[in-house]
Structure formats: C-alpha cells, structure tokens
Specification:
- The protein is of the alpha/beta class and 456 residues long.
- The protein has two domains: 141 residues, no CATH class; 266 residues, Spore Coat Polysaccharide Biosynthesis Protein SpsA, Chain A, CATH 3.90.550.
- 51% of the residues lie in helices and 16% in strands.
- A ten-stranded mixed β-sheet has the order 3-4-5-2-1-6-11-8-12-7, with helices on both faces. The chain has a two-stranded antiparallel ribbon with strand order 9-10.
C-alpha cells in the first residue's frame, strides 16, 4: 500500500466525518425550525397560566456571586421588576474578596436573620444569613469560598423556600417577562423538571433607566461579536433541535428553571464538576428515567437573558479551555448514558461526544493531514476542495441558518445591518477563529487528561 493509498483512505474518513457532522446539524436546524413555527400561532392568543392564576407557582431565584460588586445591584434590579407575582431572591456571597457583601448590605439594608435550611446539599460552611429590610423577599447567604459556582448554588438551594428554583449568574440581566415565560412552559407541560431559555451577549446593548435592555445591538468588540453568532447557534439549534425528543443535554447555568425536589434528589450540583450545568442536566435525566415516570426537560426561545461575554483574547481563551475541560469531565462521568435511554443515549449525547468533545482533535488532524497529503501530491485537488466545502463552507451556511432562525423566533436585533453583520461573521468565524478555538479545546482536553484543578 502506497502513501497515496493511505492518504486517500484517511481523507475519505475525514470527508465522511465532516459530512455526517454537517448533516446532523442541518437536521437539527430543520427540527428547530418546525418546532419554532409550531410555537408561533399560539403566542399571545391566551393569557399565560402562570400569571393569570392566583395559584401561580412560587419561584426562588438563586444568584451566586463571587467578586461581583460592580454588577450585583444592576442584575438584582431586573429580578425585582419581573412581571411575576411570587418571587424570593437568594443571593449567595461565596467568600468574595471585593466589596460584594458591603454593596449588598448598603443597597438592601441587610440585617442578620435566623433561617433554617430546607436541605443539606454539599457546600462550604455558611458564615451568616441576612434579610433585606426593603419590601422585597430577599435573603443573602454569606459563606466561605467553596472554590466553585456549584458550591455557591448548592448553598442557595438549601435556603430556597419555594418548590421552583431559577438559577442564574450574578452578571445576568432578564427581560421583564423572562420568569413568567419560563414558568409558563413549566405549567403547560406536566412532568417538567427543568426549563432553559435563550441567552445572548449583553455587550453593546442599550439599557433603559431600570436596567433592562431597551435595544439589542451587535457588540463593537470583535470577540464579543463572534460570540453573538455562537450563542444564537448554540441555543436555537443546539437546544431547540432536541426539544421534541426530550433529549436536551444542558440547561445553562446562566439561566435555568428547575423543580427543586428533583435537584435535591440528585444531590444538587457536583462540587468537583467544571461543566456543572451539563452534569446536573444529565443527572436529572438519569434520575427521572430511573423513576419510570413521564418527565420533560424543556427549552423555550422566548425567555431572554443577557450576559456579559469576554472581550479579550485571553479571557475568551481561558473560558473556552475551561468549558472543554468541563465537557470532558461530563463525558467521562456520564458515559453510561451512551446507547441507552432512547434518543438521549443513541443520538443526542453521542453527538456531543463525537461532534463536540472529539471534534477539536479530529478537525485539527484533518487540516494537518489534508495540507500535508496535498503538498506531497498524495491526494487530488478535488479531494481538498471537497474537504474545505464540508468542513468550512457548510459550516458557514449552518451559522447563517441559525441567524435566520433567530429572526423567525425572536427578532432580537431590530436593525437589518446588525443581522447582516452577524451573517458576515459566519464567514469570519470559519476562517481562523474556528481553528483557533480548536486549539483551545485541545488544551482543555489535555487539562482534563492531566486532572488539572479549577475554580471560579
């Protein structure tokens, strides 16, 4: 067998891999498109039961905070102005080294309180419990730093007094109806144990006097702009496409609504998990399946949440390395799901393994081998063109299709030039940024293999 024969066989492998990847993604686009179209006729046709009923489910919002003195009160303001009748807010100060606790004390007129814990999820010791003297139901849990967001959220769940909990990041801003729409989805579908919603970058948006986004705009910063495209694609395709099959594998830690009893039953967040949000989602799937009763983990596009995204190369690099390290941990911890439990185990989770976890290594090898084989004359020009079309060209079309889904489902960006700019970044993303991200993810993979630690 000659080098040319070997190179041709390897090239066919990569062509098959990229072809299958793009085919699966376009199938998700079509499913997401059908799901969104099915939702459109019912929007606005009848009152939301979560608001219309005097027996609306009460919600405890869990807001973990570590060194958030500059953002914490602004994020809290959008929580207090939610169009929802029954809210408790539990802020967890996870041993912040800045003035987070002092800012909360001054802004909320905090006083010490005695509040028994409803559960005993694992977390670092609590130093004090405080209540706000304002008219709002706000509790602040001050605790020793546990080294992770998971630890802080568990502490908040322990002191949450309602049966629905909404877990958010301290730098997340909501729309006025975000909680209402998430609870509505919970009420519509009996057996629901978790609901996620769309999250988009806050960078560049215009805020009104109350802290809400009054006009969505594409960020001016290059790194934030390209992440806007990523977020649209991840939420409207990566989540929405799996909803009809009850195979959503992740409810984002930046915004998710959960049945408290289910979260407590699975032990809350795993303290040693970097990808704690995906880990919790999969634990909930496995727990519910073991119960043998119908259940649902859903996602709706309308409940919008906004979060600040990294605007420097270094911050983004560290985030993506950490994310892939977390994904690696989750894959190893939940490998028993594969080829079990219907669509979740046969399609959804395996696709995460093959097209997300392993993709960085396989894509990088594909680029290197294709370039070397072509330069040595072992493969034809046509094979190189086919590789580029499958690996890059269809990826661009996929991203544009995701933006079109956003226009149908949400129409967040009112200016046509913003939509056109996001589409243009579908080209930019695949010509340099995607390859750079693959390198970051490989670092994350090897950090997982080396058992490197992590923190907030």
């Amino acid at each position: 067998m000659t080098y040319s024969d070997i190179a041709t066989a390897v090239e066919w492998f990569f062509l098959g891999y990229f072809g299958l990847m793009q085919l699966s993604y376009f199938a998700l686009v079509m499913v997401a498109f059908i799901e969104i179209l099915a939702r459109l006729p019912r929007k606005g046709l009848r009152p939301l039961p979560s608001v219309a009923s005097r027996y609306a489910p009460s919600v405890s919002i869990i807001m973990p905070a570590y060194n958030e003195e500059s953002m914490i009160l602004r994020a809290l303001e959008t929580m207090l102005l939610q169009e929802y009748p029954a809210l408790q807010i539990v802020i967890v100060n996870d041993g912040s080294k800045d003035r987070t606790l002092e800012v909360l004390t001054e802004g909320l007129s905090l006083v010490p309180a005695v509040l028994p814990a409803r559960s005993k999820l694992n977390c670092a010791p609590t130093r004090g419990i405080f209540r706000s003297q304002t008219a709002h139901d706000i509790v602040v849990v001050d605790k020793e730093n546990g080294g992770s967001k998971a630890d802080a959220v568990n502490a908040g769940i322990n002191y949450a007094r309602h049966d629905l909990i909404c877990i958010i990041d301290a730098d997340t801003l909501f729309e006025r109806t975000t909680i209402r729409q998430a609870v509505d989805e919970y009420v519509r579908h009996p057996g629901t144990i978790a609901v996620g919603g769309t999250i988009l970058p806050l960078n560049g948006c215009v805020l009104d006097g109350e802290g809400f986004v009054s006009e969505a705009r594409v960020p001016k910063n290059f790194w934030a702009r390209i992440q806007t495209l990523e977020y649209i694609r991840a939420f409207l395709l990566g989540r929405m496409g799996w909803v009809p099959f009850n195979a959503v594998t992740i409810i984002s830690g930046a915004f998710g609504l959960f049945d408290r009893s289910a979260v407590v039953a699975v032990g809350g967040y795993s303290l040693d998990a970097i990808g704690e949000d995906m880990d919790l989602t999969l634990k909930l799937h496995k727990w519910a399946l073991a119960q043998g009763k119908p259940y649902r983990i859903g996602f709706v596009p309308e409940p919008l949440a906004w979060t600040d995204v990294p605007e420097t190369h270094h911050e983004l690099q560290q985030q993506r390395i950490r994310w892939h390290q977390g994904l690696s941990e989750v894959v190893a911890a939940h490998k028993d799901i594969v080829f079990r439990h219907g669509v979740l185990g046969w399609l959804s989770f395996p696709s995460q393994i093959v097209f997300e976890w392993l993709s960085a290594i396989l894509e990088t090898l594909g680029y290197i081998i294709t370039i070397v084989a072509w330069s040595q004359g072992w493969i034809s020009d046509e094979a190189v063109v086919a590789f580029l079309v499958l690996s890059l060209g269809l990826g661009m079309l996929l991203s544009v299709a995701s933006v079109l889904l956003e226009e149908i489902a949400l129409r967040v960006f009112p200016r046509l030039r913003d939509v056109a700019l996001i589409c243009a970044y579908a080209v930019v993303e695949n010509l340099g940024y995607r390859q750079m991200q693959a390198a970051w993810r490989i670092i994350g993979f090897f950090r997982w293999a080396m058992r490197s630690g992590h923190s907030w």
